[in-house]
């Protein structure tokens, strides 16, 4: 039998999660500052160095000077032959160094544009650019024919250049939490793309039909935007396994949604759906379906009583303003930041669901009521 888990007042759980995430980050920041100011790290480093010297049989006279530990690692090189462990470590470091030659990383709000030297590094295979003030992707990106991963989340990018269609070997494109309002049709030329993340841009309302060419995409995240329907091009992504359309303006699902016959996870919470189409029953590989139960008035019985092992989760998401709790001391002003925290919560929640060996064979309703 299928199982339905209904959680009422989901916003309370989310509020507690937001608070926990913020407090944990604050604790990590304070602990880092404390360690930086204390001598514990230095003592630990010296102690580990002494242990390493003892393992290698290096006499104290080589690393102790006037009672203080000399942590210069050149001691290892100048004393005896390099042991097998050290050789393996050196080989690993060399391999990582070689790998990092093909990865470009950039972070920090002080960056408003890409460095000029980047255009000369056309051999790069990955770009990881996060949390900057960069608004534009340069057109010379077309020269990076070996690019496999384009990770550009949490910047200020307001449009994608048409040259992005020249990246024939691109497998991962993440432009989440930027300022995009549209996607160029040329993206459909990236036929080897496997993962596309457009979440958190808040303003995207439609996708070009040309994206129908992306037959290799298995993961599609278009959450936290302004889609009123699932684009036709998405329904033509025949290998799609994970689809997140949460936090949009969907009022209904397409009647032919069962065209996505490889789909395993479908996230629809925080939309305006009033009913679910019977076509969902035909999606035999669908194992997790998450919706918001606030407005749903019609759900096919076969969805709730599926024999395919489908986990059907209906979440009640009451307005957060109605919750008064001293644990939620500060309401997050930025909607993007709230969406990021909610995605972290949902990721943890879904992982927990997948790890469960079994789920209740009955409907569980939980109503939280706090008066503080």
From TrEMBL:
Give the transmembrane region(s): none
Keywords assigned by UniProt, alphabetized: Leucine-rich repeat, Repeat
Instruction: Quote the Gene3D superfamilies the UniProt record gives.
Output: Ribonuclease Inhibitor
Record-linked SMART domains:
LRR_BAC, LRR_TYP
Q: Does the keyword S-adenosyl-L-methionine apply?
A: no
Show the PROSITE patterns listed in the entry.
Answer: LRR
Is Cytoplasm found in the keyword set? no
Give the UniProt entry's GO cellular component terms. cytoplasm
Q: Name one Pfam family in it.
A: LRR_8
Read off the InterPro entries from this record.
Leu-rich_rpt, Leu-rich_rpt_typical-subtyp, LRR_dom_sf, LRR_domain-containing
Coiled-coil positions are: none
The name this protein carries in UniProt is: Leucine-rich repeat-containing protein 2
Species for this entry: Calypte anna
């Amino acid at each position: 039998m299928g199982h339905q888990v209904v959680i009422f007042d989901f916003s309370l759980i989310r509020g507690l999660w937001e608070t926990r995430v913020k407090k944990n980050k604050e604790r990590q920041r304070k602990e880092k500052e404390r360690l930086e100011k204390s001598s514990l790290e230095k003592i630990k480093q010296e102690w580990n160095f002494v242990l390493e010297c003892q393992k290698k049989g290096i006499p104290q006279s080589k690393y102790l000077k006037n009672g203080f530990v000399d942590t210069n690692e050149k001691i290892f090189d100048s004393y005896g032959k390099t042991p097998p462990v050290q050789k393996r470590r050196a080989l690993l470091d060399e391999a990582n160094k070689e790998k990092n030659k093909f990865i470009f990383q950039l972070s920090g709000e002080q960056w408003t544009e890409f460095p000029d030297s980047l255009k000369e590094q056309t051999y790069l295979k990955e770009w990881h650019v996060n949390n900057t003030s960069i608004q534009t992707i340069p057109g010379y990106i077309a020269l990076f024919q070996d690019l496999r991963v384009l990770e550009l989340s949490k910047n200020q990018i307001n449009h994608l250049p048409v040259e992005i269609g020249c990246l024939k070997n691109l497998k991962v494109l993440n432009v989440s939490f930027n300022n995009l309002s549209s996607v160029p049709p040329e993206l459909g030329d990236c036929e080897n793309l496997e993962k596309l993340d457009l979440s958190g841009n808040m303003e995207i309302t439609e996708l070009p039909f040309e994206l129908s060419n992306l037959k290799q995409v298995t993961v599609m995240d278009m959450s936290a935007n302004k889609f009123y329907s699932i684009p036709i091009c998405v329904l033509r992504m025949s290998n799609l396994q994970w689809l997140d359309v949460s936090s949009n303006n969907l009022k209904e699902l397409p009647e032919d949604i069962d065209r996505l016959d490889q789909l395993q996870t479908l996230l629809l919470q925080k939309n305006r759906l009033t009913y679910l189409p019977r076509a969902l029953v035909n999606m035999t590989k669908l194992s997790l379906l998450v919706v918001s139960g606030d407005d749903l008035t019609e759900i096919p019985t076969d969805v709730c009583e599926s024999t395919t092992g489908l986990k059907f989760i209906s979440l009640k998401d009451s307005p957060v303003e109605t919750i008064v709790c001293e644990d939620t001391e500060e309401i997050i002003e930025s909607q993007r930041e709230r969406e990021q925290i909610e995605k972290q919560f949902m990721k943890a929640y879904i992982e927990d669901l997948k790890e469960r060996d079994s789920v209740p064979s009955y409907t569980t309703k939980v109503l939280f009521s706090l008066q503080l």
